[in-house]
Amino acid sequence: MSTLIVYAGKYGTTEKCVKTLAAKINDPVEILNLRQEAVPDLTEFDSVIVGGSIYFGQLQQACRQFCRDHSTELMRKKLGLFICCGTFEKTEDFLDASFPADLLEHATVKAGFGGELSLKQMSLFDRFVARMVTRAARKEGRSLPAIHWDEVELFSAAINRQVV
Ligand SMILES: Cc1cc2nc3c(=O)[nH]c(=O)nc-3n(C[C@H](O)[C@H](O)[C@H](O)COP(=O)(O)O)c2cc1C
């Protein structure tokens, strides 16, 4: 059973999560960065995993577009959906807002992997926003962004349990 992981991210968190996830999946896996590569023929894959990071409450545009363009094919696959976001507590809300309802219902695995703020790599504007978000979280006693590797682990385990 072969799996395609399709993703879009900006500063490397999503990519890091995807690479770890791919390494934990038992069957052959191909990775597609939507911001850099063209979409291959999806008929070659039994499972597709789609995910990306959240900016200002929205999933990466390239992911949203991919889901719109390939909805019919995705409905015929084993499907996994994930997001990376700074506010882990909002994972359910972000998942619901990010993917079309039919795909959400069809997907067998859904998760949020958390996120991180890689300030050094950010544009000035993004760094400014990230600092504001961090300050607000500290002030309100909320947890700071972090990758939830346990969620990546659970996701891979669920994918490995799937049979065609
Ligand atoms: C400008 C900016 C806006 C963001 N907006 C949100 C947001 O609305 N909600 C949230 O939970 N996280 C938000 N984040 C956090 C990102 O989702 C998080 O940094 C994620 O790890 C980014 O992954 P990437 O490097 O793969 O793009 C934002 C981060 C930045 C820099």
Number of strands: 6
Order of helices and strands: EHEEEHHEHHEHH
Report the biggest beta sheet as strand number plus sense, adding barrel if it closes: 6 strands, mixed
Helix tally?
7
The distinct ligands, each listed once, are: flavin mononucleotide
Portion in beta strands:
15-25%
Q: State the distance separating the first and last CA atoms.
A: 7 Å
Unreliable stretches covering 5 or more consecutive residues:
none
Q: What is the alpha-carbon Rg in Å?
A: 16 Å
- What is the CATH H-level superfamily? Flavodoxin domain
Shape: globular
Q: Briefly, what CATH class?
A: Alpha Beta
Class by alpha and beta content: alpha/beta
Task: Tell me the CATH topology.
Answer: Rossmann fold
Number of structural domains:
1
Please give the share of residues in helix.
40-55%
Under the CATH scheme, the architecture is 3-Layer(aba) Sandwich
Q: Would you tell me the overall average pLDDT?
A: 95
In short:
The protein has 164 residues and is of the alpha/beta class. It has helices at residues 13-24, 61-69, 71-74, 91-98, 101-106, 124-139, 149-161, and strands spanning 3-8, 29-33, 47-55, 58-59, 78-84, 109-112.
